[in-house]
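re: that chain from earlier
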Amino acid sequence: MKVAVIGATRGIGLELVRAALADGHDVTALVRDPASMPQKTPRLRLVKGSAEDAAAIAEVVSGQEVVCDTLGTRNVTGEVRLFSRTAEKLAAALQPDQLLIAVTGIGAGDSKGHGGFLYDKIFMPLVLRRMYADKDRQEEIIRNKVSRWIIVRPGFLTNRPRTGNIRAVTDLRGVKSNKISRADIAEFILAQAKAPEFVGQSPLLISSGPRK
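^ sequence. v structure.
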């Protein structure tokens, strides 16, 4: 399978690159600086460029079966437009048969109010408000302009090893998010790339059991 990863040099994106390569897939990664990519293998193709650049996105998307947008940002003080601008570029470049898997997070769309009191009432409005306003715009663009998509909303991310204890929730009634590893999120994304079960849905991913 041919998989493209945007946001590939750290976090969920890097875990996904590693998982996809280990599973035998060909990976194309969009990177601002190729030297920042720790993975080196002939099955990993690097495209240098910005996720907000239409030409770079078109190059990365071309010929791929699945495109994964795992972008993140450390900007929590200024206006954020990275996610929505990238979504617009992806919507223009993707073909109808290509699958887009995009990572947003707990607090986007109808997952608001499912993070627990401190997150929902303090951290979200005071720290993450601008970021999640753009994630909301991102999700709207994807739903309205992309033919085949899955929006993945992780819970509270950790750098723990993969556990395999993961649950994808689409009915959020009574659900509160919890901690989940980036490696587990990457495993879920790769599983959906290989055999999509949630096309046109936005599952919240949470840990379903104790760490192994």
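The mean pLDDT is 95.
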